[in-house]
Amino acid sequence: MKTTIVQTFSLLLIILIISGCGEDPQEQAIREKLDQPIFSTLAEEREYVDSLNGVRYYKDEWMLESNDSPLKDEVREDFTGLNYFPVDMNYVFRTRLHTFEDPEIITIGTTTGDNREAIRYGYIDFTINNEETRLYAYKFTAHRGTELEKYIFIPFKDATSGSQTYSGGRYMDIQEEIPGVVLIDFNDAYNPYCVYNEIYSCPIPPRENHVDVAIEAGEKKFNL
Length: 224
Fold this sequence. Notes:
The protein has a domain at 81-209. The protein contains 4 helices and 8 strands, in the order ααααββββββββ. It has helices at 2-21, 25-35, 42-65, 73-76; strands at 92-99, 105-109, 115-128, 131-140, 152-156, 170-174, 176-178, 181-185. With 224 residues, the protein is an alpha+beta fold. The strands form 2 sheets. Strands 1, 2, 3, 4, 7 and 8 form a 6-stranded antiparallel sheet that branches. A two-stranded antiparallel sheet has the order 5-6. The longest helix has 24 residues, at 42-65.
């Protein structure tokens, strides 16, 4: 009986060792990253909120004072700041980035009628307000070989577009934390420059990134 127990235990141990050795290291790294909490304490959450509000404050200063600001001169006179949804931690999460093995090159239209060439890089799946949602991610071919190549572009229209937010949609720029994992923060969603000045050429979110869910986070409509 003792011999049978020892043999059974040894067999289970061998199976566990073989299973562990056979796990894809990248898949293991992705799983471990997804399991990590974004904020470990309430103090970290408060620090994040304070930091984001600080970024918004300095963006307002930049919009008002910088020579590179998209605001028209006549608009600056009455500018009191951009409009945002309150910071909401429910819109901050990690998720898997599913990349395409053989990504296609597509053209994304702009507000001025020209087209920009982009790599259809991958997609993310997530749930907001109990609704399963998918957004596609792109990289502009013009950014190849530059510092901007690391950024992933996610333009989108949602159920707030045209009412609470800009009718043409909003943008997010993200990076992979590790290959296959991204941190999504819709509190960072921002308006394109053409909202403030029609001379700018802004990419229009492709139809596949028009979603029915209301993403009530990030920048709202621009009003003086």
